[in-house]
């Protein structure tokens, strides 16, 4: 089992090209079914001191593996 705080420390990596997508910011949960539907990912855009944080949703079915140091996801359909 893994907690949200543990997930937030993991990097999210796209398996297609090995790019770093960001870190888990939050979870999207279907309260009626009691299931996680997506990860809310904090992406950094821009450079230097003026980095802007964007949010991106990664659907739960696109998560391939939650490892000890990374989360591997499929970004292309």
Characterize the structure shown:
With 77 residues, the protein is mainly beta. The protein has one domain (4-73): SH3 type barrels, CATH 2.30.30.240. Helix content is 5%, strand content 55%. The protein has one helix at 4-7, and strands at 11-14, 20-30, 35-45, 52-59, 63-66, 70-73. It has a six-stranded mixed β-sheet with strand order 4-3-2-1-6-5, with no helix packed on it. The longest helix has 4 residues, at 4-7. It comes from Aciduricibacillus chroicocephali. Pfam families: PRC. Residues 2-75 form the PRC-barrel domain. This is YlmC/YmxH family sporulation protein.
Residue-averaged pLDDT: 89
Q: Care to count the β-strands?
A: 6
Radius of gyration: 13 Å
Head-to-tail CA distance between termini: 28 Å
Measured by DSSP, the beta-strand proportion falls in over 45%
Question: What is the number of domains?
Answer: 1
What's the CATH architecture?
Roll
Uncertain residue segments: none
What overall geometry do the principal axes of the alpha carbons give?
globular
- Strand order, main sheet: write it out: 4-3-2-1-6-5
User: What's the CATH class, please?
Assistant: Mainly Beta
Tally the helices: what do you get?
Answer: 1
Q: Helix fraction?
A: under 10%
- What kind of assembly state do the chains in view correspond to? single chain
The third-level CATH topology is: SH3 type barrels
Characterize this entry briefly.
The chain has about 80 residues and is mainly beta.
Keyword list:
single chain; 77 residues; mainly beta; SH3 type barrels; 6-stranded mixed sheet; 1 helix; 5% helix; 55% strand; globular
